[in-house]
Amino acid sequence: MTYSQTALDQLEGGQLEAFKQSFQLALNHDDDDMLYSLAEELYSLGFSTYSKTIYEKLLKKFPSDDNLKINLAEIAIDDDHDDQALNYLSQVTKDSPEYVRSLLVSADLYQTQELFEISEQKLLEARNLAPDEPVILFALAEFYFTTRNYRKAINLYLTLIKSGTLEMSQVNLVERLGVSYAEIGKFEQAIGYLEQIKPVNMNSDVKFELAFTYFNLKDDQKAVKAFEDLRDSDPQYSSLYPYLADALVRLKRVDEALKVIQEGIAIDQYNEKIWQKAGQIAQMAGQEDLSLKYLLKGREIAPDDMEILTLISDWYIAHERYSDNLTLLEPVVEDQVFDAHLAFNLARSYQAVGKTKLAANNYETAAHELGDNPNFLKHAALFYREAGNITKEKTYLKKYIDLVPDDLEMASMYDEDMNI
Question: Which PROSITE patterns did the record assign (predicted)?
Answer without folding.
Answer: TPR
